[in-house]
Amino acid sequence: MSVNVAAEPDIAYQGNDKLLAGLVLSIVSFWLFAISLGTVAPAVLLDLNGPYADEAAKTWTSPVLSPTAMNLAVALTGLVSGLFIVLMGGLADRFGRVRLTMVGNGLNILGCALIVLAGGALATPMLITGRVVQGLSAACVMPATIALVKSYWDGPARQRAVSMWSIGSFGGAGLAAFIGGLTATQMSWRWIFVFSAIVSVVAMLLVRGTPESRVVTTGHRRFDSVGLALFLITFLAVMLLLTFGGKTVGWLSPTGLGLLLGFLVGLIAFVIVERGREYAFIDFGLFRNMNFTGAVAANFMLNCTLGTLIVSQQLLQIGGNMAPLAAGALTLGYPLMVILFVRAGERLLQVHGPRKPMIWGALLVALAAALLMPTNLLLTQYRWLALIAYACFGLGLAFFATPATDAALTSLPPEHAGSGMGIFKMASSLGGAIGTAVALSLFLGFSGSDAGNVVGYVVEMVGRQDNIAIRQAAMIAIGAMLLFALAAAVVAALAVPKGRQED
Q1: What is the largest CA-CA distance in the chain?
Q2: ∠ CA(91), CA(92), CA(96), 5° rounding?
Q3: What is the pLDDT along the chain (503 residues), one digit of tens a residue?
Q4: What one-character-per-residue DSSP string does 154-189 give?
Q5: Taking the domains of the chain in order of start, what are their residue ranges?
Q6: Does domain 15-213+279-495 have CATH number 2.30.40.10?
């Protein structure tokens, strides 16, 4: 049956600061609290498993939560969010963006409860389930909230709203290490998720009463269950390969090769099937707009660098024996730069268009990764480099955030605002999940083997020698993140147009 789709009718309602605060708090529940699990992972493992059986190797005899399962839990929320965000964006367009925002906050409260109660023999299943539910929460709130920004703000007011929304996402991610470390050190890592649930409750109170925003449709639009199934199989295969392919099953083992084959076959099948379907899970027609395509691709690459933060924090805690609070305090320059300069990114967008600030932002993130790579230095020296690096990381994201988001947002027709921004935020979530999985897989794989010792033939590791494997593994993992940042700059230079595209 054919479907007639029209933009929602004009209404008198205009967005205000109360609604904007509710939208920002809705995404903070993911970007600040959910992401912080990766930076406090050592504290979680110690709390659930007890003291190390082998202090030098940092291992347990019979852990209730293995380090590999911990890495999966860290990356899983971003993965699930990325897998379902396009679907939820489409549902927001059809059934209401305010409604999906409320549902997403409710799911976060449920996920937090599961994580807080995780322990004993049920520690792993409860933690994993809670992270899955948190991923579904993020999949609801991210496309719905940014679509509400497009619906209820216009012109310069929209750019300001996008900047505030970007502060909630990138700034929240920047504060994740410090807030997580502070909470884990002074209270308990479980309180991170208690606070997350409280933030979701406040967000719901602020958003409640907002007029509903949806797309007006006539007829019946069929759901693309085949496309969703292929999408899930494809990215679950690659995520399992990245998480377990190193130390657990082996890259070249039958299981590892089977997962790789499943990813490749699933990806090819997904593209072939979706391009020929009238009601596709992902509307490939949106990618005909180079502004949108370039913004999505560069956004994916830059979000892959999230692994830089997680690996460097675990290096400081495991290899440098720093408390979570002390390690997290080094990252304060990151959120500070985001908060102070995200409006500068907005002004750069107005003057230069999206391409230049996106390139500058990606190069600053690459510089941050380069500064975090010299793990051969003494801890006192490395801490100073880390301070500068985290500030560069935040400044780069501040320059990148609003131009990339606005480039994607202004290129979308109103009737595809939710699903289109769902694709954009899918790139963020999948990029963060895949980047985190790549970084942690390299870090965990090389830190427990002699393979990373090849670095020792090129770079002299000074200071303590009992943590060389961990330091070399971190150098390799952060080096991979550097390549992602450079790729984001190249994509922005080649695929994002110079000038601004008007609504």
Answers
A1: 70
A2: 115
A3: 444 444 454 457 787 889 999 999 999 888 777 778 888 888 898 888 887 777 666 677 778 888 888 888 888 888 888 888 878 887 888 888 999 999 999 999 999 999 999 988 898 999 999 999 999 999 899 888 988 888 888 878 887 888 888 788 777 877 888 888 899 889 999 999 999 999 999 999 999 988 888 776 655 566 677 888 888 888 888 877 877 766 666 667 788 788 888 889 988 988 888 776 767 777 777 777 778 888 889 999 999 998 898 899 889 988 888 888 888 889 888 888 988 887 788 788 888 888 889 999 999 999 999 999 998 888 889 999 999 999 999 999 889 988 888 888 777 776 666 567 768 877 887 888 888 888 888 888 787 665 556 666 677 777 777 778 888 888 999 999 999 999 999 999 888 877 655 54
A4: -HHHHHHHHHHHHIIIIIHHHHHHHHHHHHHHHT-T
A5: 15-213+279-495, 224-278
A6: no
- Output the CA angle 296-94-162, nearest 5 degrees: 40
Q: Which helix (H) or strand (E) holds 323?
A: none
- pTM comes to 0.78
Structure-block tokens of residue 304: 């892959």
